[in-house]
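Before a colleague's protein record goes any further, I have to sign it off. What it holds is a sequence and that sequence's fold in token form. My question to you is simply how this chain folds and whether the tokens agree. Thanks in advance; the entry in question is below:
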Amino acid sequence: MKPKRGLLDLFSMQGEDPEFLRDLRGEVGEQEPDLCFQCMKCTSGCDAFKFQPGYKPHQLVGFARLGLKERMVGSEVIWNCTTCSYCKEVCPQRVAPVDVVKAARRLAVREGRAMEDHRKIAGYLIKTGHLVPINDAVRELRRKLGLPGDPPTTHSFPRALEEVGELVKRSGFKKLLGEGKDG
């Protein structure tokens, strides 16, 4: 299905990728990026925009509407969203820019375009069952707080880490990251 075009879209009709449009729509689900009329309400209250002025949710929805794959999937900007869902709550058209961004991220990962920092963090999850690895300094701090050095998680329960490994294997998560890129 071709996106609906508004007068503001005429300047940017080159670069449309129909396959990307189809894939993105499949990922977004019920949300309808075509309904966005670029009121910028999502961007005006966005915390990520306040700290990363290059991050503009309304602009990303516009790129999605136009099927501009490289402007979405090929951009580091999609990783700046905090996924707070403010944009989804204030959108008068119920477009949910956050869902468009998460869909673009999933497509980027499938194409091997995850940022290296994200690959490292995912590697920690695969190796330790945690997003942030525990080290001797953290263990010492825990002891000073009267806690056991290792938290009651995969660090204390090796079987739980085996289960994390099995989930990673079954889900294909490690394959998405690219073999040998697990931190």
Observations:
- The chain is about 50% helix and 0% strand.
